[in-house]
Amino acid sequence: MLLVALVLASCSLPASQSSVPASTSGELVLEPDMLERVEVWLSRMAVDETFSGSILIAQDGEVLLNRGYGSADRELGISNTPQTRFRLGSVTKQFTAMAILILQSQGRLNVQDPICRYIEDCPAAWEDITIHHLLTHTSGIIPMVMNSGSLPITPAKLLALFKDAPLNFQPGEKFSYSNCGYWVLGYIIEQVSGQSYKDFIQQAIFEPLEMHDSGYDQDVPGLALGYKDQYSIATASLVSDSSFPYSAGALYSTVEDLYRWDQALFTDQLIPLELLDQMFTPHISQYPDVVGSVAYGYGWMVLDDLGRRVVGHGGAIEGFRAWIIRYPNDHITIIGLSNQEDSLSIMFSIWRSLIHGMIAISTNDGSTITYAGPLEAQTGGSLSASFMVTDPSGKPAQGLIGGTLGKSPTDSAAVRASARLNTDGIVELDWLANLPTGTTRLYCEFNGVEYEIAHITISP
Predict the structure, then answer these.
(1) How many domains does the chain have?
(2) Cβ-Cβ contacts under 8 Å for 278 (sequence gap 6 or more)
(3) Hey, how many other C-beta atoms are within 10 angstroms of the C-beta on 369?
(4) 145 assigned to some structural domain
(5) What confidence tens digit (pLDDT) does each residue in 137-177 have?
(6) Which residue in 211, 247, 266 sits closest to 99, CA to CA?
(7) Do 89 and 256 touch, CB atoms closer than 8 A?
(8) Considering the domain boundaries, does residue 303 fall inside one?
(9) CATH code, 451
């Protein structure tokens, strides 16, 4: 679901060898050799301009990797650093959720309150919606409205764009990701606090945590320019005014500030621990028909990764991608911010390789296929993994890659998935593990040839 892969020719493993974490049960340790591979790989990607951004990796309060890669401004030759500011997109939502819980801790609202208590001329269709429904994307409010331009818009006018739209389902009935719902939360924060969303987030969260490189406005010093890919010009002319993504996606930050945020989430500095637990409670499954799938808390996705608790969230906005992944019981944090839209698979790959290790296979033509992902799946659940393919010169390969989970490539009961490699030579594949318990095999097809990658354990 939410995992990852990586490797370059300069740091690839020999054919048919693997690198795995020090522990697959009990304590999880991020190995120095794997961190070194990540750094070498990202440095190579930065030279090729297939990755641009900043990465921070930490465990047990110790920062293990904290570097910028590529350019914050290609025209001016300004490099990304750990202090470069990036737009967060939907990573904003966890701060919006925290703002609501801060107001609850102050006795000024409760997540079980009906939202119409705080909204003037509230639509009749919204009468049964609570703040909890908005936080968990279970309100039934439509997911999104299109941006009508780059001019500023007030929160009231933003809500007016969708207030009259019918609900997609009854509140609490199911999960459906809704930016509009988080816009309503921003409006409620303003009504209850008497401050703008920008000022409340700044005063209640950023200032206490000394997050001095985080904020709301898009025209600030030190903010990277966003790009579509390694070939494009900056997307500045296409960027919406901050008032449109608003409380669903308008914030910016740095990897170092987000690490301050991460460390505060282990404490009661902002809210009591019992309220913090509500933020990370899996309130609703995002995919109820899949065993062990991703759930949603308040502004965070929550999942079980082979017995390990994981909370995280991604963000996507014009020219930028963001991800924060936390293994709270193992005190592991992986933060990736990028000013290149096609970088999400790279950040996933970093995650997966650090947690699950990697397996590299040499192909008949001298290319290298690298698998990063778990070697176990729960029956009825999902197996998610990353594949990276480099050509004989070490450059990202292109083409279609397929994966088969079963006793053999021709097994009629096997589960199959395929996709085209991205420009960075990486692809994410998912298989529904509708297989009997025991050991099966994972195969990969590339350029018309099947290769056995690994044995996969299907657990009850």
Answers:
(1) 1
(2) 101, 111, 297, 298
(3) 24
(4) no
(5) 999 999 988 765 578 999 999 999 999 999 999 999 999 99
(6) 247
(7) no
(8) no
(9) 2.60.40.1930
What's phi and psi for 237, nearest 5 deg? Answer: -70, -15
Position 373: which residue type?
G
What gap in Å lies between CA 328 and CA 208, rounded to an integer? 22
How far is it, in rounded angstroms, from Cα 247 to Cα 193? 14
**What tokens does 141 get?**
């409010």
Query: 277 with 302: CB under 8 angstroms?
Result: no
Q: Are strands 376-378 and 449-459 parallel, antiparallel or unpaired?
A: parallel
Q: 104-113 b/e with 16+ CB inside 10 Å = b? A: beeeebebee
Range of the domain at 445: 362-459
Q: Which residue has the tokens 């909890």?
A: 132
Residue 382 lies inside a defined structural domain of this protein: yes
Q: Which amino acid is at 92?
A: T
Residue found by looking up tokens 């500045």 in the block: 236
Contact 180, 96 (CB under 8 A): no
The first and second tokens of residue 98, run together, are 């925290």
- Residue matched to tokens 């006018």: 157
Contacts of 169 (CB under 8 A, 6+ apart): 140, 176
In a domain, 381, yes or no: yes
Q: pLDDT tens across 300-335, in order?
A: 999 988 889 999 999 999 999 999 999 999 999 999
Q: How many C-beta atoms lie closer than 10 Å to residue 116's C-beta?
A: 16
Phi-psi region of 81 (alpha: psi -120 to 50; beta: other; left: phi over 0): beta
Q: Quick count: other Cβ atoms within 10 Å of Cβ 363? A: 18
Cβ within 8 Å of residue 448, ≥6 positions away: none
Give just the sign of the alpha carbon dihedral 403, 406, 410, 416.
negative
Show the tokens assigned to 116.
């119409």
